[in-house]
Design goal:
This is Spermidine/putrescine ABC transporter permease. 76% of the residues lie in helices and 1% in strands. The protein is an all-alpha fold. It has one domain: MetI-like (MetI-like fold, Orthogonal Bundle).
């Protein structure tokens, strides 16, 4: 397309400069705050951060909820994606549209809907009391369960879309051939479907995990101050305590966790493929 690299570089250069000035420079300045102490460079801010029990609890909670949401999304996503891929073309388009539809709705509106559903006078509590499973309303809001449900509903479509794309690129005769050779459905999934769709799982898992870690609205509304996560803790440190050093530490932790999750998923997929 281009006669030489200079032409291609000239087209890319404006976008690269814009990204560097608007995105990279502010992020690097923020991250550097966690390593500076006066005129010297140190990691004392990170040592102080992890030495506090509250920060340790928030870090582990964020990691746990992100991992649980990713695992649940993978299980539900594979079942849903496999069913959608095997639908007739007309039905496949309609169901895929329904999967994409929540992504067009504001996360704020989708999260506030759970306040109505999970509240003490919400649909869930009314149903539990009506069928006799509970004598009084159960407190679902401001718990890890509420945050988990909200994050799962928020990011599940991303996993389903990634897996649909991966399953559609899988050879059509792979599953029938495995069944003819005597493989049960568990063997078909672990030996055929999973290895052939690992790229979609890596992409979907990365999107869901990083999204669950960095989402602010859902943990803030459904968890409040009782279920702090790293992103809500970061917001408090900046707006309430005006502590940009701790904010820098939390920001770098979130970035490192996102890259680590992507590398781990790729490593697991590669290791399973080699076996």
């Amino acid at each position: 397309m281009f006669q030489n690299r200079a032409e291609a570089f000239a087209l890319v250069l404006p976008a690269a400069i814009f990204a560097a000035v608007v995105f990279l420079a502010p992020v690097l300045i923020l991250l550097s705050e966690g390593f500076r102490s006066g005129d010297s460079w140190t990691i004392q801010a990170y040592i102080d951060f992890f030495s506090q029990s509250l920060n340790q609890t928030v870090f582990l909670r964020t990691l746990k909820l992100a991992a649980l949401v990713t695992a649940a999304s993978a299980v539900i996503g594979y079942a849903a994606a496999f069913a959608i891929v095997n639908l007739p073309p007309k039905g496949k388009g309609r169901i895929t549209g329904l999967v994409v539809l929540p992504l067009m709705i504001s996360p704020v509106a989708r999260t506030y809907a759970w306040l109505v559903i999970l509240g003490r006078t919400g649909f869930v509590n009314k149903a539990l009391v009506a069928v006799g499973l509970s004598d009084e309303p159960i407190r679902f809001l401001f718990t890890e369960t509420a945050v988990f449900i909200g994050l799962l509903q928020l990011f599940l479509p991303l996993m389903i879309i990634s897996l649909i794309s991966a399953l559609e690129n899988m050879p059509r005769d792979a599953v029938p051939a495995a069944r003819v050779l005597g493989a049960n459905w568990l063997q078909v999934f672990t030996k055929v479907i999973l290895p052939l769709t690992k790229e979609g799982l890596v992409i979907g898992g990365t999107l869901v995990f990083t999204g669950s870690m960095t989402a602010y609205i859902t943990p803030a509304i459904l968890g409040g101050s009782k279920v702090l996560m790293l992103e809500t803790l970061l917001y408090q440190r900046v707006t309430v305590a005006n502590d940009f050093v701790s904010a820098s530490v939390i920001a770098l932790i979130l970035i490192v966790m996102a890259f680590a999750a992507n590398l781990l998923l790729k490593r697991l997929a590669t290791a399973r493929n080699k076996r």
